[in-house]
# Entry
Amino acid sequence: MKALIQRVTAARVEVAGEVVGAIDQGLLALVAVEPQDTPTSVDKLLHKLLNYRVFGDAAGKMNLSLADVGGGLLLVSQFTLAADTQSGLRPSFSSAAPPALGAELFDLLVERARGKHPQVATGRFGAHMQVHLINDGPVTFLLQV
# Structure
């Protein structure tokens, strides 16, 4: 699994003009599922999402995690993040999980995240979404498990 995380002061996802998920301060995570991913991958990624230290402490150093600051977590499925872009001028999506596996593992990530963190919002799997965010920093990292 991969997640492109962005530290945000606010983020929201809209589908057909309707806000389906929103957070204030926290992390926006664009999540891609790959064919080899399993529930163990979900657990590893969730651990990183909740504990990766990207928020500033009193000295301004990135020493605090999402769990430490109590921020929101906005999970958005994004199969294009798994694209193979190494050759040519058009992405190949053969490295992305089939939709059924992607939905199953993304839903499991959401379920487990909600069981461990008080503020979890999502986009809508498979939908055409508009993601609005205010990137704080900017601070952006690619997490891979």
